[in-house]
Amino acid sequence: MKKSLIFSGSGGQGVVSAGMMTAKAAVEGGKYATFLPEYGPEQRGGSAKCTVVIDDSPVVSPLAKKCDVLVCMNELSFSKFKTQLREGGVLLLNSNRVTSEVKRDDITVISLPVDDIADEIGNPKAANIVIIGALIGATNIITEDEFLDSLKKKFASKAPAIMEMNTVALRRGIELGQKQ
């Protein structure tokens, strides 16, 4: 079950972290994964993208001509990468920042106001966790438990309230992803 994913957005939206945590969760769940980040020198506001390949067998190349899943956290990333999604793929959009109409009918589109959802939860930085939850809910590419284990390791040194908010964000995303 080889799957390639592209996470895209701007620096500060947690795109690279989302890809890294997804790849780590897959590996910790017994799969093989590669993680290839691409971003400019800016910490916030510049373009950010990463490619993750998850497979049951060792991954030969971290690159894919077309991806199975495309996550777009802003309008620029949608415009830039929409042609890289293969037919039958899944497109996850942050509808707070992607306002263009999706004109393809050969893909599954999941459009969620992840910024608003993260704000409602009380952690605006958790928008990337919400969209990963939607990814899990829609595709089962990794499990909730695998991702929660990865989250716990990443936020082990933070206050317990941070982990609680991220868990709520993940579960809210999963719920919404399953509805799509």
Can I get a quick summary?
The protein has 180 residues and is α/β, with parallel strands linked by helices. It has six helices and six strands.
Strand tally, please? 6
Strand neighbour order, sheet with most strands: 2-3-1-4-5-6
Number of helices: 6
Q: Mean pLDDT, nearest integer? A: 94
Largest sheet: 6 strands, mixed
Please indicate the percent range of residues in DSSP E strands (runs of 2 or more). Answer: 25-35%
Give the uncertain stretches in residue-range form.
Answer: none
Class per helix and strand makeup:
alpha/beta
Q: Span from first to last CA?
A: 22 Å
Rg over C-alpha atoms, rounded to the nearest angstrom: 15 Å
- Overall 3D form: globular
Q: What helical percentage do the residues reach?
A: 40-55%
The ordered H/E elements are EHEEEHEEHHHH
Descriptive report:
By secondary structure, the chain is α/β, with parallel strands linked by helices. It is 41% helix and 26% strand. It is built from six helices and six strands. A six-stranded mixed β-sheet has the order 2-3-1-4-5-6, sandwiched between helices. β4, α2 and β5 form a beta-alpha-beta unit.
Give the key terms.
6 helices, six-stranded mixed sheet, 180 residues, 26% strand, single chain, alpha/beta, 6 strands
List the helices and strands and how they pair.
Blueprint: E1 3-10, H1 15-28, E2 32-39, E3 47-55, E4 67-72, H2 75-81, E5 85-94, E6 108-112, H3 114-121, H4 127-139, H5 144-154, H6 160-179
Parallel strand pairs: 1-4, 4-5, 5-6
Antiparallel strand pairs: 1-3, 2-3
